[in-house]
Amino acid sequence: MVAQDIRKSAFAADFDFEDIRPYYDPEAHEVLQRMSKDPLFLKLIHNLWPEMSLEEAQAKADRVNGTMDFQLEFMHGAIRTIVGRSSDGLSCSGFDRLDKNKKYLFVANHRDILLDSAILQILLVEHGFPTSEITFGDNLMEPGFITDFGRINRMFTVLREGTARELYDRSKKLSAYIRHTIVDKQISVWIAQRNGRTKDGIDLTQTGLLKMLNISGGDDFGKNMEQLNIVPLTISYEYEPCDALKTQELYLSSLHSFYKKAPGEDLNSILTGVLQPKGRIHMQVGKPVTADLLNEINQGGNENEKIRQLCLAIDQAIHHDFKLWPVNYIAADLLDGLMRRADKYTNAEKDRFLEYAKKQTKELNGEPEALLQVFLKMYAGPCFTREKMG
Predict the structure, then answer these.
(1) How far apart are CA 352 and CA 389, in angstroms?
(2) 334 Cβ partners below 8 Å, 6+ apart?
(3) Who wins on pLDDT, 46 or 174?
(4) Between 202 and which of 36, 170, 179, 381 could a Cys-Cys bridge form, CB atoms 3.0 to 4.6 Å apart?
(5) Which residue ranges form the domains of the chain, and what is each CATH number?
């Protein structure tokens, strides 16, 4: 264990974060030396840094003296390589809404296990901000290289298994750690608005997330949330990462009401999300949640009602900021049969998307037409949601 000389506020003083924290800067060099000798490191070099020899990578590793160093020296170029290979371009807006003197809690819609948060990191750097810490489920933290890779990337672990009492205690510690990171460590945090990725195309913030964040604060809900500087964050992929895998899961879940993941399924989803063509990608930074809005929410109802109102505000921001692509309008028209959005796409785009949808669902297990309907609903979800908003 390496000590970190950072004061803990009262809300964090009683917690030991050793089992969930990322690596500290003084640990980074030794960890990277260990990683660079792992066979997986050589595979990563071939795929993520093709212009770099093993010797060059190891020499660069010798110069790394912190987690931010690792992200700048290795990960920034790697994510840019992934985006260049698997997309038709990355755009963004809203970073001018952020204050370089503040640290934020980015509450984000979640479409891809790795890229949602990774894309934020490269855009933060390119707009003059330091990278954030990132939540990462313990189901993805396999011992050894994968855990080292996550923790040196400023990822902290969300522990998801246990009894009801254990999960409550872990929620308290997670809440305290997130507040400690933003307030004491002065580092921003990325967190998904829900457990697991959105698969039906409808991005909704789970009330449990805000309950978890609130329990490390005091009696004033508004002040608790204000301290975290919440920013809704929206990523919009033209072609949904893992759309076929998500369709299969949704279809099987509709038949059996419960879906059990196969061994290695999460890793397969990570690789598929990285490699699958995604068309265009857009990231939108929403307006930070203001003290005025939180004061308004604080005026009425019990804590559950306040949480519901803040969830609604975050959802409205994400639904408003989601960039609708032609495929979203096409899927909506194919489902409701009214073709009232035809001015948003061409006939050629419609034909290409329908061919793509049939190809993606062709090899899946299940009734073909039902699978196609599930697939189309995934793409139509953001469009239907926007229209319901008015």
Answers:
(1) 29
(2) 354, 376, 380
(3) 174
(4) 381
(5) 92-241+276-321 (3.40.1130.10), 326-389 (no CATH)
Residue partners of 226: CB distance under 8 A and separation at least 6? 289, 291, 294
Residue 202 burial (C-beta neighbours within 10 Å; 0-12, 13-18, 19+): middle
Task: State how far the Cα of 149 lies from the Cα of 118, in Å rounded to an integer.
Answer: 13
Residue 157 confidence class, pLDDT cut points 50, 70, 90:
very high
Q: Are 117 and 108 in contact (CB under 8 A)?
A: yes
> For residue 86, which amino acid is it?
S
Q: How far is CA 197 from the centre of its chain?
A: 8
Supply the DSSP string of 258-310, one letter for each residue.
Answer: ---PPTTHHHHHHHHHHHS----EEEEE-PPPPHHHHHHHHTSS-HHHHHHHH
pLDDT tens sequence across 231-259: 999 999 999 999 999 999 999 998 876 66
Looking at per-residue pLDDT, the higher value among 150 and 141 belongs to: 150
Residue pointed to by tokens 């992934």: 82
Name the residue with higher pLDDT: 61 or 333: 333
pTM > 0.90: yes or no: yes
Distance CA 15, CA 328 (A): 45
The three-state secondary structure class of 179 is: helix
Tell me the C-alpha to C-alpha distance, in Å, between residue 368 and each of 139, 172, 353, 364: 31, 45, 16, 8
Q: For position 2, what pLDDT does the model report?
A: 54
> What are the structure tokens assigned to 223, written together?
């002040």
How big is the CA angle at 323 (ends 318 and 327), to the nearest 5 degrees?
125
Cα 149 off chain centre by: 17
